[in-house]
Design brief:
By secondary structure, this protein is an alpha/beta fold. It has 3 domains: 240 residues, Rossmann fold (3-Layer(aba) Sandwich); 31 residues, no CATH class; 80 residues. 39% of the residues lie in helices and 23% in strands. Strands 5-11-10-6-12 form a 5-stranded mixed beta barrel, surrounded by 4 helices. Strands 7-8 form a two-stranded antiparallel ribbon. A hairpin with a 2-residue loop joins strand 3 and strand 4. Helix 8 packs antiparallel against helix 11.
Length: 381
């Protein structure tokens, strides 16, 4: 399987299904410990979807398991939360710029003293989210005609209790001690800690507001606000996943591993009529002075570009939704089969691309690109 760019995690089945609605080409992946994940795509981004259950401890364990299994470049946590302030409406979305673990404290004779831990959201991910919200670009993932909710950026408080009171001692303490927090929930701290321990992996927590954490949760849930809130949060998460994937780079470069001896072969290539010389105080490893080999375009790069242009064609109305969906599934099949690196995978990729060619034959630019990819695959050794 091609490594995913993003892992998306949820705590509840309701949240899981809201995110899954945006995935195409969904397949099941079983972890050796029994945890089930589902893989698919959002736009051109390979995604893994997982369910962590409720609470920061469970969230931390499953997040660690997902990161170790799939080696993503980013993690999103998507779900519902309770609003802590009146100006945040039911159905609004809160994007965390930091997550508080608010149950870090010391209890003394004169009261509880906060000893919080906090995790800052990755700057570049937060910048992308702001950009999507400013231009309302993310709303393409909402249902046609749906009301566009407000999106708030600010801290989220994550603890181990379901807060459903505005007057309890716990509620007063949270609002006084973490008075900049916009919402309260139970998993963001666990997810953030697991990502932090994996090389400060970027994490974005996105929460739809389903209640006010003030004693009216049963009424709000009964009125269907959980479904509406998580639908909005999942739409923003899908848009952010697609946009982030355009800038995400592989997490690890084995050539830059710490302590790796510099004894690799170095090839210096002359192109055209150029000549090559070497000036160095010390040379480690072999040095070859060769003419440039014949260059071939990478089919995986061509497939990614095809998918991008297919998405643009859909947005411009050149390709209808059904054609976009069917062609996208075949492109996914081609990419995954090609990644296997086997002759059978190569054959499967070619078959899938011939289907794509049939679907897009009326769109000259896209059809020409499909033919070019087929030629590039056939030219592989």
């Amino acid at each position: 399987m091609t490594k995913p760019s993003t892992i998306i995690l949820t705590a509840l089945d309701l949240e899981y299904e809201a995110v899954k609605a945006h995935l195409t080409g969904v397949e099941t992946h079983r972890h050796r410990a029994g945890t089930l994940f589902e893989t698919g795509r959002i736009g051109g981004c390979r995604v893994v979807l997982g369910l962590v259950g409720t609470g920061n401890q469970a969230a931390a364990v499953i997040t660690e398991r997902a990161i170790t299994e799939f080696e993503p470049s980013a993690v999103l946590f998507v779900g519902v939360a309770g609003a802590l302030w009146p100006h945040i409406e039911l159905g609004d979305v809160v994007v965390a710029n930091r997550a508080y673990a608010y149950h870090g404290l010391t209890s003394e004779d004169d009261g509880d003293k906060a000893r919080p831990r906090a995790w800052q959201t990755s700057h570049w991910a937060e910048q992308i989210a702001h950009h999507l919200v400013r231009g309302n670009a993310w709303t393409k993932y909402l249902a046609p005609g749906a009301e566009i909710p407000k999106v708030h950026f600010g801290p989220i408080a994550a603890g181990e209790v379901v807060q459903d009171s505005a007057i309890s001692a716990h509620a007063k303490w949270v609002r006084q001690t973490y008075n900049d927090a916009k919402a309260i929930e139970m998993e963001a701290a666990g997810v953030s800690e697991a990502a932090h321990l994996n090389g400060s992996l970027p994490v974005v927590v996105i929460r739809g507001i389903s209640d006010r954490a003030d004693g009216t949760k049963v009424t709000s849930d009964g009125a269907g606000w959980q479904q509406r809130a998580v639908t909005n949060a999942a739409a923003l998460a899908a848009a952010l996943t697609e946009e982030m994937s355009k800038e995400i780079k592989p997490r690890n470069d084995p050539r830059k591993a710490a302590g790796k001896p510099m004894n690799e072969r170095v090839t210096n290539i002359a192109r055209g009529n150029a000549r090559v010389g070497v000036m160095a105080g010390a040379i480690h490893g072999d040095v070859n002075l060769n003419q440039a080999p014949e260059e071939r375009e990478d089919p995986e790069v061509l497939l990614a570009e095809l998918r991008r242009r297919l998405g643009a064609a859909r947005r411009d109305g050149v390709v209808d939704e059904a054609t976009y969906s069917h062609a996208g599934q075949e492109i996914d099949t081609a990419a995954d089969s090609l990644a296997e690196g086997t002759s059978e995978g190569k054959s499967t990729a070619l078959i899938a691309l011939k289907k794509v060619n049939g679907l897009l034959m009326d769109v000259a630019d896209l059809a020409a690109r499909v033919v070019a990819i087929i030629a590039a695959i056939k030219g592989l050794g």
